Amino acid sequence: MTDRTRLFEAAALPHLDAAYNLARWLLRDEHNAQDVVQEAYLRGFRFFDSFRGGDARPWLLGIVRNTCYTWLRNSGQAAEHVEFDEERDSGGNDSTQNNPEAFLLQKNERARLDKAIGELAPVFREVVVLRELEELSYAEIAEVAAIPLGTVMSRLARARAMLKSALNRGD
Q1: 91-171, what's its fold?
Q2: Model-wide pTM > 0.85
Q3: First CA to last CA across the chain, in angstroms?
């Protein structure tokens, strides 16, 4: 194994779950997400010399994001209309797991939230996923999405408002 390979693995492999999570939310299909993440990691390795050091997470998630949009464009799918039907695991705490009613309510709320996130346009969905699920900073999201910091804040505010509205309507 070359030094370059070892450096890439050390920088990129810790972020594999985040890469898959982003791809799954953008593509809304677990199998396509796996394929796209694999392609993104190959691209990342190919262009690893362009990585300037520091935290590899935003750099790598930017590659994943771009690879997702390329896949959507090449497959002829309108990203706003891709169905997401994966049943997400609900990780309740012990008190919830011991109370079937509370567990069911939590599972239903999570399903409503997942549905509302899934119905957002990709530009809003990606900022919500990167901020709320992957816990990236606004600056890191700006780097991943290649957009100004103000645009990140604006999109996130609009996405949150859309989510709140959808959840209040009972969608």
Answers
A1: Arc Repressor Mutant, subunit A (1.10.10)
A2: no
A3: 51
Which residues, in sequence order, are CB contacts of 146 under 8 Å at separation 6+?
62
Domain 1-83 in this protein, CATH class? mainly alpha
Residue type, 15: H
Give the whole-angstrom CA distance, residue 127 versus residue 144: 10
Provide the residue type at 129 as one letter.
V
Alpha helices in 76-121 (DSSP H): 94-97, 100-118
Tokens 């709140």 — which residue? 164
- DSSP 3-state of 148: coil
pLDDT digits (tens, 9 = 90+) for 8-19: 999 999 999 999
- Asked if 157 and 129 touch (Cβ cutoff 8 Å), the reply is no
